[in-house]
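Follow-up to my post from last week.
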Amino acid sequence: GQQLNQSPQSMFIQEGEDVSMNCTSSSIFNTWLWYKQEPGEGPVLLIALYKAGELTSNGRLTAQFGITRKDSFLNISASIPSDVGIYFCAGPGPTGGGADGLTFGKGTHLIIQP
Amino acid sequence: GAVVSQHPSWVICKSGTSVKIECRSLDFQATTMFWYRQFPKQSLMLMATSNEGSKATYEQGVEKDKFLINHASLTLSTLTVTSAHPEDSSFYICSEAGLSYNEQFFGPGTRLTVL
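User reply:
Got it. Predicted complex:
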């Protein structure tokens, strides 16, 4: 199946700093999704991207769909304590087994120091 | 986005018993729902697609006889872990597709611990 390489694996930043994370794939995606997961909860959809080159914002979050359709990045500006969590990129199938759900990156764990 | 609930939120069971987890769509009818599994400090892995009124489609390596999926109505999918063993301990999360099929909205997850 497809694989998504997400980096960095973790980030330790100061409150107020900007954050940038990215996701790359060896195959083309037609949709890129960015989710945030907090401990003990399901992922929450932050931004969905549908067109190559598309740049979309959601409050302090901005994400872009790479021109090659093999990468995407997520930026968070002026981080605040509630931004803490794990951020996942994801894309739709095929996942290799026929179930056609989402393939997830390994996640970026964001930790904010006050 | 869609609203999805799961029940129970956590369950502890003895090895060899079966556990049923429910996933409900609260705001619209979902002909397709998805089941994922997440081990500690790892990403979500798709287990199967649950199709209303038909058989589920399983990912490679997921035993369909061990993880029974039933999607008998447009608002409810269930996952039954049969003869659970400690290695089945995980966080099980369901999702449903939004108006755009490629968007998925997730439930709050069910933490299964098998002793």
